[in-house]
Write a structure and sequence with these properties.
2 domains, alpha+beta, 199 residues, two-stranded antiparallel sheet, 4 helices, eight-stranded mixed beta sheet
Length: 199
Amino acid sequence: MLVQLTEFLPYVLPKVPVCSPEVALQAIREKTILFCKKTHAWKETINITPQANVTEYPIMTPYDTNPICIYEVRIGDYKFFPSGKFPMRCSLDQQTYTLPDYDRVMLDSVPCCPCNDIIIYTAVAPKQDACGVSEEMYELYAPDIAYGALADLHTLPELFNPQVSGYYQTMFNRGVGEARNKNFYHNSYTSRTIKSEYF
């Protein structure tokens, strides 16, 4: 379920009553993107239907997001490793994948009978024109993202207050640190999957 970014406004506008909702919303959007990029807190599981003799596939993430970090690529129990980043003691015939960019994945090969979907576990961040975040992101991190937005808003001429901005930035940074520690060392993914086929 997608939660609109306007749902963040009650966390922000009461503290900056002279600020317009449009300006506040832009600050919220920018800090949401930064929060996701710094913490990898928003994760998705992408399912792709493999095609015969096709090794390159687009990575299509939901909700106007971009993939920012690929954690794992597999077909059933068959795991692909990042090219050039083999784990120790990994056999040299282990299949690999490469990322020409974060919009597509290239597998060195596909098993001869790919009866299972390609599954990609990825962290995502909203695009610049995104309108919302996942329900989990909102429930867990709305106050932290609001702190970041308030820090930025208090650098505007009509709201300029370095001390208040610094306070909110400190609170935002603390939230980022806590979320980063949680998500970098405890990789959990939402149960949603996005079905995409390559043609």
